[in-house]
Amino acid sequence: MADKQISLPAKLINGGIAGLIGVTCVFPIDLAKTRLQNQQNGQRVYTSMSDCLIKTVRSEGYFGAAVNLTLVTPEKAIKLAANDFFRHQLSKDGQKLTLLKEMLAGCGAGTCQVIVTTPMEMLKIQLQDAGRIAAQRKILAAQGQLSAQGGAQPSVEAPAAPRPTATQLTRDLLRSRGIAGLYKGLGATLLRDVPF
């Protein structure tokens, strides 16, 4: 009995929906991890992962994942469609693939996925860092106001710099580093995604 072929648009939609669900679940944890790792010892703004998430939601709202949600759709769609393409190319007359061929199909899909993953992660890290800096300024300013009310010297509050958007960051990266700047870390991403 021949396997029923699923159309490419259906594979792309399936991959996109799976990616949206996955990123919605994982993004808050990834954001907290990045912010906790980027803290300077002298300026510890967050005490734990839950403290980081609570302060982030209070200062930035729930929609910090917009770039990830936007870019993960084509990333997962490419990965799913490429995996099916490589599986089809490696199969003989619809026979079940050997473990080695399954692994080769996955490696090929991971290689194709990196086209979207590398610039997406570069942008994600830049946005998370910009959000971290903005959140730290806001929290430190609030702490300065509290200590000023408690009788300590009032701190001079720096003017709040507007948080850059994904579009602004992309333009800045392209202007300063070119296309190659968006693909910085390509080798490490390949080493992670191809075996995965």
From TrEMBL:
Gene Ontology annotations of biological process type: transmembrane transport
InterPro entries (UniProt xref): MCP, MCP_dom_sf, MCP_transmembrane, Mito_Solute_Carrier
Entry membrane topology: Multi-pass membrane protein
Annotated compartments: Mitochondrion inner membrane
Keywords for the protein's UniProt record, in alphabetical order: Membrane, Mitochondrion, Mitochondrion inner membrane, Repeat, Transmembrane, Transmembrane helix, Transport
One of the record's GO cellular component terms: mitochondrial inner membrane
Record's catalysed reaction(s): L-glutamate(in) + H(+)(in) = L-glutamate(out) + H(+)(out)
Keyword DNA-binding tagged: no
Pfam family, one: Mito_carr
PROSITE patterns, per database record: SOLCAR
Membrane-traversing stretches: 12-29
Domain of life: Eukaryota
Each Solcar repeat, start to end: 6-93, 97-196
Function statement: Mitochondrial glutamate/H(+) symporter. Responsible for the transport of glutamate from the cytosol into the mitochondrial matrix with the concomitant import of a proton. Plays a role in the control of glucose-stimulated insulin secretion.
Family (UniProt): Belongs to the mitochondrial carrier (TC 2.A.29) family.
Name used for this protein in its record: Mitochondrial glutamate carrier 1
Organism: Homo sapiens
